[in-house]
Structure prediction request, 436 residues.
Amino acid sequence: MAKRTISPGGTIDGAVELPGDKSISHRYAILAALAEGASEISNYASAADCHSTLECFRQMGIEIEEKEARVRISGKGLHGLSGPRRTLDAENSGSTMRMLAGVLAGQPFSSTLTGDESLRRRPMRRVIEPLRQMGAEIRCQDGDRAPLEIQGGNLRGIDYTPPTPSAQVKSAILLAGLFADRPSTVRESVCTRDHTEIALREFGATIDSIDGTRGSVRIQPGPKLTARKLNVPGDLSTAVFLIGAALILPESSLMLRSVGLNPTRARVLDFFISIGAPVHVASIQSRDGELAGDVSVRHAPMKGGKIAGTHVAEMIDELPMLAALGPFAEEGIEIHDAAELRVKESDRIAALAEGLRQMGARVEEFPDGLRVEGRAAGKLHGAKIDPHGDHRIAMALSVAALGAEGDTIIRDAECVGVSFPEFFATLDRLRGGDAS
Ligand code: S3P
Prediction:
C-alpha cells in the first residue's frame, strides 16, 4: 500500500475551504433517505466513511446521485426502505454502523451490517443493548462485535442513559425512536455532538430538550420527514490538522473558510486559545440550524496543557492531533479519562505513543491517556511510521513530522481518505507545493 514521505519545514500560508463535516453528512444522508421527496445536499463530505453510508442506502433501494460534492437523495419516506439483498458494509465507519443499526432496528425486515477488520473489532454492545430494550432482535459476535444481524420492527420507546457518552449511541436511539410506539428519551451527562437533534428538526421531526438540560432529549415517533436542501459546513475535526501544521511551522498564517462551529464541537478552539494559539473566529452564521464561520490562526509558541474529564468527549476526535503537538509545546500535552481512545479506528493511545516515541518524543502511556513531554525533551526526528490503518493517527503524525529533523515515512498513508482524502494535497498547496 502507498507510503508517503513527509519532508519537514516550510510555512503554511493561505486560505482553504474544507470538505463537508463528516458527522453532519452522515446524518443528512440518513434523514434524506427517510424523508419524502428529493433532498439536495451540497458540500457533502468527501470522506470515504460518508460514501459508505450512501452505499448502504443504495442497497436498500434509495436512489442517490452524486456530482462532486453535491448529493441528491430521493427519499421514500419513513417506511420506504426495502430489505437489502446483500450484507450492508459500513467499511471503516463506526458512525455508519451504529447509526444505521438504529434505523434498521425500526424496519420490518432483517438485515446484516458488517465492516472492515478495524470496525469488526470495535464495541457494539453499547448500541445493541438499548436497541434490544426497544424490542429489536440483534445477533452479534462475542456479545459485542459486528457483523450485526438485525430483525427490526415493533419498537417500544425507551428512557435511556448511555453508560459512555457517545453521539453515535444517542443518534441510534433517536433514529430508532422515529419508529417506536411512544416517545424515546436519551439522557447524557456530557452533551455529545447534537447534529442528529438539529438535523431531525430540520427534516420536520419533533425533538425537545427535557429537564432544562441540553444533554437530555426526547423524540416523538412517526413524524412525516420532508425533503430538504441543505449545505454541510466544513469539517472542524479535519481543520484541526491544518491548524496543528500552522502552529508547528514558523511564520505560518492560515485561514479556514466556512468551518462548522457547532458548540458541541468547538471546544477544541477554546483549548487552542488556552495553550496560547492565536485562533480567531469571524463571520459566524447559522445555516440549517448549524453554526459556521471562518477560523484563522498564526504560528505562535504553544504553552501546552492537560485535557481530562468532560473535555475528552467534547474533543474526542481532536485528541490525536493535540497529543502530537506535545513535543512542540513548552509544557507538553497530557490527556486523561480518555480510555475511549483505545476503541476508535485503532487503539489511538498505543498508536500515538508508538509513533511519537519512534520520532524521539518522550511519552508516558496511561490506561486512559498519555503524557507527551514538551520542547525540553528534545526535537523530533524522522521515522518510519505505521498509522495502524487509522486516518487520524496518519494525519496527526504527518503534521508532527513537519517539525521533525529529517524525513518521515508514513506507511499506508491512503488511510487518510476515510475522513480527508485531500489531506496531503492540501498540505502541499498550503506549503507552496514544496512538500514531498
Ligand atoms: C461521531 C461521534 C464520535 C466520534 C466519531 C463521530 C458522530 O463517536 O468519535 O468520529 O458522528 O456521532 P462517539 O460519540 O461514539 O464517541
Q: What stands out?
A: Residues 23, 95, 166-168, 171, 192-193, 316-317 surround shikimate-3-phosphate (CB under 6 Å). The radius of gyration is 21 Å.
